[in-house]
Amino acid sequence: MNDEGLETMNISFLRGHVSQLTQIVSQFALKPGEEEVKKKGWWHFWMQK
Fold first, then answer.
1. Which residues have a Cβ under 8 Å from the Cβ of 45 and sit 6 or more positions away?
2. For residue 31, what are the CA distances in angstroms to 5, 10, 38?
3. Cα separation of 20 and 32, whole Å?
4. CB-CB contact of 39 with 31 (8 Å)
5. Cα–Cα dist 8/45, whole Å
6. d(Cα 35, Cα 46) in Å, to the nearest integer?
7. Which among 5, 29, 30, 41 could disulfide-bond with 34, CB atoms 3.0 to 4.6 Å apart, if both were Cys?
8. 14 near 22, Cβ under 8 Å?
9. Cα–Cα distance between 12 and 42 in angstroms, integer?
10. Confidence at residue 39, expressed as pLDDT on a 0 to 100 scale
11. pTM above 0.70?
């Protein structure tokens, strides 16, 4: 395999990992306002209704 083919494979490999990591991080990211819910506990917001 030539250097160009190897470089293309490496780039594809890295793109796949970046995509995977982006999905994982977005799953753990809190939406605006959820941080407050997490601090106070869900029952504070449930009881207000």
1. 37
2. 41, 34, 11
3. 23
4. no
5. 51
6. 15
7. 30
8. no
9. 42
10. 73
11. no
User: How much is the pLDDT for 15?
Assistant: 92
CB 37 within 8 A of CB 45: yes
Total residue count of the chain as it appears in this document: 49
The three state secondary structure string of 21-41 is HHHHHHHHCCCCCHHHHHHHC
Residue 19 and residue 27 in contact, taking contact as beta carbons nearer than 8 Å: no
- Side-chain-side CA neighbours of 14 within 13 Å: the count stands at 6
Output the tens digit of pLDDT for each of the chain's 49 residues. 688 898 999 999 999 999 999 888 877 766 657 677 777 666 665 555 4
- Please name the residue that has the structure tokens 């009881």: 47
